[in-house]
Amino acid sequence: MKLSTRVGIVSLSLMCSFSSLAVPVTDKLDIGGAVRLNYGWKDYDDNDKFEFELFRVDVNYKDDKLLASAQYRWYKDQEVIHHAWAGYKFSDETTVKLGITLVPFGLLDVASHSFWFGSTYYLGFEDDYDAGIHLQHEANGWRYDIAYFANDEYGDSSRYDRYSFDVAYSDARPYEEAGQYNARIERFIETGDVKHKLGASFQFSEFDYIEGDNAADGKDTDGYAAAVHYQVDWNNWQGQLQYIHYDYDMPDDRMAMSAFSYPFEIAAKADVYTANVSHSMDVEWGPISNINCYNDYSMTAASGEGLDDSIQNVTGCMLTAGKFYTYVDWIAGKNMWFANGPGIGIDDGDNGWHSRLNINIGLYF
Question: How far apart (Å, rounded) are the C-alpha atoms in residues 266 and 139?
Answer without folding.
Answer: 38
